[in-house]
Amino acid sequence: MTASQFDCQYCSVSLLGKKFMLKDGNPYCLKCYDRVFCNYCEECKEAIESGSKDLCYKGRHWHEICFNCAKCNHSLVEKPFAAKDERLLCSECYSDECSSKCFHCKKTIMPGSRKMEFKGNYWHETCFVCEHCRQPIGTKPLISKESGNYCVRCFQKEFAPSCNFCKKVITSGWITFHDQPWHKECFLCSGCRKELCDEEFMSRDDYPFCLDCYNHLYAKKCVACTKPITGLRGAKFICFQDRQWHSECFNCGKCSVSLVGEGFLTQDKEIFCRKCGSGMETDI
């Protein structure tokens, strides 16, 4: 480099015997270098001159003495920090301001530590435990009640109903019969052992029966049609002495007119309307 080449690239002043800065291979006096190339501090907005240390983070620059936590103002030089909403925070302030709080102990869940999330709340892993056995739940299945969270085993032990038939815990949908819970697969006809959960059924002496078994074992038979009288779905029937009729079968044995709510006459096992039974001995 010749003497003429050793001049400030910007103001042409000789740099012989003076401090200077190089930029893209060209020399600059300190004054020109600062004027043309220096960065401005994010904090104080003053130029970061060539004689000062320039601290840079994601394209932003600070004087060394200005590189501080935005909350507690402690220096961040050579210390861990984090950014939030364009602010730089030391680890302690970032944790206090930005980290989740444990739903159980209310303390900060420090960045990098494992946290559990459930229904919009957060726990330390060691705080997220079963309310009954106090063992960590982790990622295992759980059941939640107002009183707390429970592992499946404890919930079943403490709260789940037991089947009236097999006495085992019921963990999903069940049938209620005589105010007692039953597994669907345990709710069977007491006669033929058919599952009744999706069937119509009748009860006898606190035992359930499918319609076929109930009709075969217990149902009265209609005198007229000989079919069982079940009374299902509000069906009405007529009783007289030791005989029964479906209401639609309670008709005059001669003219077939309905006798429901009407006076009638009997002879042997037959029933008649007053008109057809005129002159007969038994009048009801």
From TrEMBL:
Instruction: Indicate the segments forming the LIM zinc-binding domain, all copies.
Output: 39-100, 161-220, 221-283
Check the record and name the PROSITE patterns matching this protein: LIM_DOMAIN_1, LIM_DOMAIN_2
Arranged from A to Z, the UniProt key words for this protein are:
LIM domain, Metal-binding, Nucleus, Repeat, Zinc, Zinc-finger
CDD domains recorded:
LIM4_FHL
Q: Which GO terms describe its molecular function?
A: transcription coactivator activity; zinc ion binding
Q: Name one Pfam family in it.
A: LIM_FHL2-3_N
- Going by the entry's taxonomy, the superkingdom of the source organism is recorded as Eukaryota
GO CC annotations? nucleus; Z disc
Q: Which InterPro entries match?
A: LIM_FHL1/2/3/5_N, Znf_LIM
Q: Does the keyword Signal apply?
A: no
One Gene Ontology term from the biological process aspect of the record: positive regulation of transcription by RNA polymerase II
Q: Where in the cell is it found?
A: Nucleus
Please name the PANTHER family in this protein's record. FOUR AND A HALF LIM DOMAINS PROTEIN (PTHR24205), FOUR AND A HALF LIM DOMAINS PROTEIN 5 (PTHR24205:SF7)
Q: What protein name is recorded for this chain?
A: Four and a half LIM domains 5
Organism of origin is Pipistrellus kuhlii (Kuhl's pipistrelle)
